[in-house]
Amino acid sequence: MALPPPPHVGPGEVSASFRRASTPPNIVSSDSAAHFLATGETTQGGFAAFRWDIGADEMSAAPHFHRTFSESFFVLSGAASLYDGKRWFDAEPGDFLHVPLGGVHAFRSVLGASVSLLILVVPGVPRETFFEGLADLIERRWNPSPHQLAAFYSLHDTFPVPT
């Protein structure tokens, strides 16, 4: 396997970024918190990484797909159910689900159990405003009409799949 041409051809540089585990989350809602670990902006569009901590109340993302990015989920702690488009898997720390472009997927927390997920998005499309909008929905700060909600999902490349 050949490597692609290197986009960086100069000498090594001091450009890494470090984020402590104790850094407060970027978004907090009643039973969840989102941490923007690496945004598409900070990775020059290469990827985006988010940690989503969900409390013991059941929370879910209904089956959906994305047209412009892949998404991967790694269970850091707790318990979740992950959907690969065909079946649900009970997931525990260390379990991983990769969803390629166009792949139907979903997830849900397990009632009574908290979960922390690492979510990797490739390429690094801006997902921050999507997570902010979800927090507004959860907290009932935004009560969109069905048309507004469909437009919100479409704007953020999230296409629900009827079940």
UniProtKB/TrEMBL annotation:
It comes from the Bacteria. Gene3D superfamilies: Jelly Rolls. Pfam families: Cupin_2 (PF07883). Residues 52-115 form the Cupin type-2 domain. PANTHER family: PUTATIVE (AFU_ORTHOLOGUE AFUA_8G07350)-RELATED. This is Cupin domain-containing protein.
